[in-house]
Design a protein that fits this description.
The structure is a homodimer. By secondary structure, chain A is mostly helical. The first copy, chain A, has nine helices and no strands. Chain A is 70% helix and 0% strand. The first copy, chain A, binds a DNA duplex through helix 1 and helix 3.
Chain lengths: 197, 197
DNA sequence: AATCAAAAATGACCGCGGTCAATTATAAAA
DNA sequence: TTTTATAATTGACCGCGGTCATTTTTGATT
């Protein structure tokens, strides 16, 4: 039986997250340095690693929170009526992840479909996204707006695949004037979900 | 106008690659340390970085070569007759990449579709794979074995997306007894290529 | 208030990738 | 052969993530 954490510990953790979030705000995710975090939090380096497994563990909390917020917005938009609307619902997520390779890498690393640790924020967010997509796809199938010959779970996972694909391509070029991920996604979703004629 | 490299330089580069390949053979890609390479090659650390941009640059050559070899085998198998056979052709590639996360990460990072530097081995391999897939898909379309409502290029890119997807999932769990990537790929390809009825 | 075991925090230390001003080898020109 | 420009190599040094034996703090118990 593991003991409940003491008050001090909770404060330290909160301080670390607060400082980290501030630094991300100022310098972006890729500008985050562990040494900066502990310095500004007035804490020893070892302390950070007793709260988070590693730097990714810290980032996972920050990014996981943001993903949750995005999912709230996505859900608030309501169920899409067709593939095009679905693409639109996914656009904020793509914009967010597309802003920094660090986000993409981290999400990719933690996004095992049936992952092991559901207590992790990122994993929870991932499961929630798949569940939401599956629900929407079911509705679209029932409405006859998309193909019905495949289970909604498979279609949902396929969408995940395309999301990561367009993001991967996005990060492979100096995206100065290129088509943003959200636009690149559309043809894939159309082809993937297209109702069988 | 850049000068031709001197003989000594070519020898050093070859030695570095030879040593690196040997270490990978013994310890796997994730066991490769720059300091080990330069020690065994009897060369200073700075030398390695004058030959390769960074550690990834070295790995890219090793991995790119292997990918090329796999493509040779893939091409030698001849054009597939249907989606199932296509899956089988891709299996060796999945097995190779699935063996070490380092390979996956590197390929993902360099796999921009229309990449900038075609002199890079990895990029060349990537372009070759897309070209080969596109050709095969064209044949399958002509034979009426797969859907014809989408351009073969889009279908080929979609396959890339699914390859990365199953690999990503694969690396997210302790793959002791799980279904290997090649098996996981099949339902996606079936659904993606299925001829419109 | 004194005691004490577990919890929390500390910071010197390590591994490893990557840099760069200084040094040495090479080959063409004088 | 001597000179000389530049190609190639060197290795001390740095940044940064991560570890762990040691020390300090906490809060329950007597």
């Amino acid at each position: 039986m593991t003991r409940a954490p003491q008050k001090r510990r909770l404060e330290t953790r909160a301080k670390l997250l607060e400082v980290a979030a501030a630094i991300v705000q100022e310098q972006g995710y890729s500008g985050l340095r562990v040494e900066d975090v502990v310095a500004r939090a007035r804490v020893a380096k070892g302390t950070l690693f007793s709260h988070f497994k590693d730097k990714d563990g810290l980032l996972a909390v920050l990014i996981g929170d943001e993903v949750m917020r995005l999912l709230d917005g996505m859900e608030a938009g309501g169920a899409p009526q067709d593939a095009a609307e679905l693409t639109a619902r996914l656009a904020p997520h793509l914009d967010y992840v597309g802003q920094d390779r660090v986000i993409f890498d981290l999400l990719l690393r933690y996004s095992g479909t049936t992952a092991a640790e559901p207590d992790e924020v990122v994993t929870a967010g991932f499961l929630r996204q798949v569940a939401l997509l599956t629900r929407w796809l079911q509705l679209l199938q029932a409405a006859g707006r998309i193909r019905r010959d495949q289970p909604p779970e498979l279609l949902a996972e396929g969408i995940q695949a395309f999301l990561n694909h367009v993001l991967g391509v996005w990060f492979c070029m100096e995206h100065d004037d290129e088509t943003p991920p959200a636009r690149a996604l559309e043809p894939y979703l159309q082809a993937w979900l297209q109702p069988a004629p």
